[in-house]
Amino acid sequence: MNRGTGGGGVAAGFSLLFFSFLFGPLIIMVITAFNSSSFPRITPWECFTTEWFGVLFANDRLMSGLLNSLVIAVSVVAIAVPIGLAGALALSELSSRLRAVLYTVLITPILIPGVVLGISTIVFWGALGRSVGAEYGSFFFDGMFLTLAGQVTFISAYAMLVFLARLQRFDPILTEAALDLGATPGQAFRKILLPFLGPAIGSAAFLTFLASFENYNTTVFTILSGNTFTTALASKVRHGTDPSLSALAVIIIGITLIGAIVHEAHTRRKEVLRTGIATRSRIYGNPVLKTLVHPLTVFLILAGIAGLAAWQGTRHDASVCKQQILDDKRARQHELLEEQRRKMQEQQKTTAPVTSPADAAGKANPSPFGGAFSPNGLAPGQEEPAPAAAPTDAPATANPSPFGGAFTPNGLKPSQ
């Protein structure tokens, strides 16, 4: 019993640490997105605000980068998915030896670092453009085209892997039977193979879209003077971050959660439709339940909740709370200044000695040069100090030098 209890405690502790490590940064970013502090932090908490979402959308560089990323990602999907499908079909029709060679060639771009792909894309298309006499304003030197070309070179391999995994479960006898029954190769592809590859096409499109949208290593070189969403974010982080990035994280987390819940509703609906009649009649026999469990209804409900929360956030005014925080900071700063001034005055009182005017005249200048370099040392109304009397003959022992005083300052006077 003790051993089982101890094992359960260790498992619970490990699970807590694992989920804290996994979701801790996300929770922190969500909280900092609603703190009025200009630096992302949880403590000290100042005021609840939604102004950082407005700061995010007011950033022209980020918004233009977001638009460029969407255009590039959609274009990559339109090009990479057909290329990946063609590569997968070619591999499935070749012999085992040729399949291994072609697979190695097609999979190589994934193994090449993105920095190398970005630089090689610029060099290749730049050299090609100069060889045909293209000007620098042509598409050979356009950042959007170069980014599209650089990303397609390796993202199409991702799509190919998705299609290969799906084709491993396809029975080629189906297409052979269709051809035997008089169907053309195009008809067999459209009527049999393409419907079978439908789920793989959706997965490949989604994967290639995300791979293009979040790519940085290749894009940072190929985009040239332009910017995408990832490069604009990296530039903003280098020049100083603020909670607007946390607001961006909140938006991404919200979209991800909505998509995950809708996908789960779609999956359960398909599972229910495949179950027995009793379950089907219990769920879909009631019109209200049938409507509520539909994925479109779930999406509309979640989108409505998100829109209502955003609308309520725009109506929230944190100016009064922020002014109160500012007044408190000023008051605290004034108190610290007054306390520092009071301490300095007390220190001056305790360290200043009380002396008479005569002592003050004698001790006013402790300099070993007799005040010769004091500001008023040569004032007109002051008398020059009398020169010190020449010393009388000093005893011979006054100069212990073995050279008999030959190197003393007055050793060579004429009177001597």
Automatic annotation (TrEMBL):
<dbReference type="Pfam" id="PF00528">
    <property type="entry name" value="BPD_transp_1"/>
</dbReference>
<dbReference type="InterPro" id="IPR051789">
    <property type="entry name" value="Bact_Polyamine_Transport"/>
</dbReference>
<keyword id="KW-0812">Transmembrane</keyword>
<feature type="transmembrane region" description="Helical">
    <location>
        <begin position="192"/>
        <end position="213"/>
    </location>
</feature>
<keyword id="KW-0813">Transport</keyword>
<feature type="compositionally biased region" description="Low complexity">
    <location>
        <begin position="379"/>
        <end position="402"/>
    </location>
</feature>
<dbReference type="GO" id="GO:0055085">
    <property type="term" value="P:transmembrane transport"/>
</dbReference>
<feature type="domain" description="ABC transmembrane type-1">
    <location>
        <begin position="66"/>
        <end position="263"/>
    </location>
</feature>
<feature type="transmembrane region" description="Helical">
    <location>
        <begin position="245"/>
        <end position="266"/>
    </location>
</feature>
<dbReference type="InterPro" id="IPR000515">
    <property type="entry name" value="MetI-like"/>
</dbReference>
<keyword id="KW-1003">Cell membrane</keyword>
<feature type="transmembrane region" description="Helical">
    <location>
        <begin position="287"/>
        <end position="311"/>
    </location>
</feature>
<protein>
    <submittedName>
        <fullName>Spermidine/putrescine transport system permease protein</fullName>
    </submittedName>
</protein>
<feature type="transmembrane region" description="Helical">
    <location>
        <begin position="101"/>
        <end position="125"/>
    </location>
</feature>
<dbReference type="InterPro" id="IPR035906">
    <property type="entry name" value="MetI-like_sf"/>
</dbReference>
<feature type="transmembrane region" description="Helical">
    <location>
        <begin position="12"/>
        <end position="34"/>
    </location>
</feature>
<feature type="transmembrane region" description="Helical">
    <location>
        <begin position="145"/>
        <end position="165"/>
    </location>
</feature>
<dbReference type="GO" id="GO:0005886">
    <property type="term" value="C:plasma membrane"/>
</dbReference>
<feature type="region of interest" description="Disordered">
    <location>
        <begin position="341"/>
        <end position="416"/>
    </location>
</feature>
<keyword id="KW-0472">Membrane</keyword>
<feature type="transmembrane region" description="Helical">
    <location>
        <begin position="66"/>
        <end position="89"/>
    </location>
</feature>
<comment type="similarity">
    <text>Belongs to the binding-protein-dependent transport system permease family. CysTW subfamily.</text>
</comment>
<keyword id="KW-1133">Transmembrane helix</keyword>
